[in-house]
Amino acid sequence: MGNCWGSATSGPETSHVYSSTNIPTTPGTSNNCSKSIESSAASSVSNCRSQFSQTVSEIVEEENPDGRILETPNLKVFTFTEMKTATKSFNTLLGEGGFGKVYKGWLDEKTLAPSKVGTGMVVAVKKLKHESMQGLQEWQSEVNFLGRLSHPNLVKLLGYCWEDEELLLVYEFMQKGSLENHLFRRNPAVEPMSWETRLKIVIGAARGLAFLHFSEKVIYRDFKASNILLDGNYNAKISDFGLAKLGPSGGDSHVTTRVMGTYGYAAPEYIATGHLYVKSDVYGFGVLLLEMMTGLRAMDTKRSDGQQILVDWLKPTLSHKRKYKSIMDARIEGQYSSKAASLTAELTLKCLEHDPKNRPSMKEVVEALERIESLNKERPKDSSSRSGSIHSSTTPRYGQQSSSHRSGGGGSIWGKR
To answer: 299: which DSSP letter?
Structure first.
């Protein structure tokens, strides 16, 4: 769900409580009495917990300088009374989705106790709809994964509440909200997101996905613009782990699961068979790259027939060196070189390969994007990229190619492989 969250005040991490027994299997109350909401849900959490614990024990010692996989969770368990106090009885709504609503709250930065409005740090509190059984499963998944995964490009889960029928999650607050809110905004009074900022965001998101795929352990499954949150400096963090799954093990290439996700982003092999590969996430990332290039949504029923699904419409254009420039967002003309646009189109096309085996790993995607970013920083301040582009303020149409485009570009982002 796309949310307007914001990041908690940065600083040294404070350890709060906790062992693996803090992963919830039954609801708790302030006096630690247990009341069952759904016994099958409890066993599901317990089973996922043990699988994830085994996965962690296999790879926790491996070096990963950008993040950590914790052997035990570092989450605070809140009471519902604390949640009501922190959110002032849930009176400031930040966003809403299928899971429920997200409210603004305030906690003491060191103790995580509720604090007065305007003091301490701001947090985002996600509150489950009582009638949502799917939401319950997604709540459990969030706790299981984000309780043990720590990375600069994953949103930080601070704690949770499970009391009677109340289920809540407490996150760091992300000041700029979701990428979706910025990338597709069409307010003429607001400057569109620049090419440089778009690159920064997708590189951050790619690093987060690469960390999840580390040793092929976690498949995110719902990668999309609304699930990428931005802090005050437009640093990207992947949020909403409700659909995340443990990756294949024992030599298997995929896991089989019920098809879930977002239409327009989901990989074709997953939709057709229910087979979920680590590189199914790479396909979703390719869709996001296409959105970044064009400024258009992955799925938009307001567009003409044949154009409603962005990949089906524009993927063929990516392979034509004399046409790919025509799909670039007209609002960012002059901000990128022809070579950078060419290499971005090539990378996008590789991510969108029909066969998951032919898609690059997210580690390779990060490296490719970093090379594109370096090209952008070295680019002379000229208008070499100005050529016909999609008129993205209305229903898109193709423009004319300039001579500068036809002579630009060249080279491959992959080199010799």
So the answer is: B
For the entire predicted model, the pTM comes to 0.80
Q: Which of 222, 240, 281, 329 is catalytic?
A: 222
Q: Is 189 left (phi over 0), alpha (psi -120 to 50) or beta?
A: alpha
- Annotation: binding site: 127
Question: What phi and psi, each to the nearest 5 degrees, are found at residue 165?
Answer: -95, 10
Res. 186 pLDDT band, cuts 50 70 90: confident
Q: Please state which CATH number belongs to domain 179-407.
A: 1.10.510.10
pLDDT value of residue 237: 98
Where do you find CATH 1.10.510.10 in the chain? 179-407
**Crossing angle (nearest 10°) for helices 280-294 and 310-318:** 80
CA dihedral for 46, 52, 57, 61, sign (positive or negative): negative
Instruction: Please name the CATH architecture into which domain 20-172 falls.
Output: 2-Layer Sandwich (3.30)
Binding region for ATP: 127
The answer to whether 222 is a known catalytic residue is yes
Between CA 90 and CA 6 the distance in angstroms is 17
Per mean pLDDT, which range of 56-65, 90-99, 166-175 is the poorest?
A: 56-65
- Which among 298, 152, 101, 141 is positioned nearest to 221, based on CA atoms? 141
For residues 367 and 414, give the distance between their C-alpha atoms in angstroms, rounded to a whole number: 9
| CA atoms of 357 and 163, how far apart (whole Å) | 45
User: How does strand 218-219 pair with strand 245-246?
Assistant: antiparallel
Copy the structure tokens of residue 251: 């030599």
Rounded-to-10 torsion of CA 315, 320, 323, 326: 40
Q: Where are the alpha helices (DSSP H) in 176-279?
A: 179-183, 195-212, 268-273
| Residue ranges matching CATH 3.30.200.20 in the chain | 20-172
